[in-house]
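Page 42, continued from yesterday. The earlier attempt failed because a stray header line got pasted into the input along with the sequence. Redoing it now with the clean sequence only.
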Amino acid sequence: MLNSILNGLLLVLAGATAIPVAVVFLECLAALLPRRTRREGARPRIDVLIPAHNEEAVIGATLRSVGAQLRDGDRLLVVADNCADRTAEAALSSGAIVVQRTSETERGKGYALDCGVRRLAEGHADVVVIVDADCTLGPGTLDALARDCAASGRPVQAGYLMHAPPNPSPRDVVSRFAVVVKNQVRQRGLTALGGAAVLTGSGMAFPWSVLSRAKLASGNIVEDMQLSFDLLVAGHEPRFCPSAEVHAPLPAARKASMTQRTRWEHGHLQTLMSRVPRLAWEGARQRRPRLWVSALDLAVPPLALLCTVWCGATLLAAASAAVGFGRTALVVNLVSGTVLVGCIALVAAAFVRDVSFTQLALAVPRYIAGKLPIYYTFLFRRQTVWVRTDRAEQPPHHHGPSQPLHSQT
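This time it went through. Structure tokens are written below.
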């Protein structure tokens, strides 16, 4: 009797890792499917909104990158939010419209976005593009986002990628790879499978009619993910635009990197626990299977945590099999582990060709070990307040020649 109960528990644990692994595998395979070309109309006039909190050191490169892609009639607005440096002055000197916002109690990117949207309401464009203050744009990104958003009438997300510093550490190599998997490969695969894209915070385009009615003013630590699913439930399913890309640097300092990862992963797990049940329920209530696809995607935990749980489940099943039970759970774990390794090899071969599978295999264990404190604090000291990533030690952006900005007051 006891063995049967333990067998059942081991199978449940094996299934808890096998299902997310299967989802990731299907998304990676679907990402390889040929993309359908979309008929695009005229490029509309756009407003670009950049929320900024103490970004004096990096915002100049961002404004040059954005300004090079603006056209006559476009507007560029920077919200200098609770800044203690010269972010506002740096933005003004680059030709942007600047709004300064200060609040002791309402802190976080969501409040800055809400302020910016209210400022853009007068004479607004049909499409608003949101870019973080530390990002640069890939060629043709604003045009691709604006055309896709105008043609579809839906929010559109660009590929949001991160580049490693010179002479990257093994941690940087895996971090960059993980971002490619989450923000490019799985986005492509998810939308190919019929799901909606997930907004990732920068490189997001919105029809004005959608953004102006969205609930933005909050201190949510992953406000982009929260907004994704609010819009999805409301019927405004975000799209992914693979021809548009935004790039940001990985944090150079270890402390800054840990701050950023803690915010991302704690926010991801909190959203997973609160939103997966709601998406599943709304999918049934509204008879919209796409919500179930998105629920399955959201139910995938951060890959480092998934690997950690898989290791624990496999060790338990192996120890149990050694004493006569748990063999089925061990087989399930070994199969899911093989599939997960296959996903990593597939992505490395198809999407990150400058990093070998061997490099990743050697760096992943150390990377996972570095994530364990994040998961420990999630259980006992969960982060619920937005904290800015410190960029004091960030290397400067690499960008092309400076070009003038188009702005209007």
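Notes: The mean pLDDT is 87.
Reminder to self: strip header lines before submitting.
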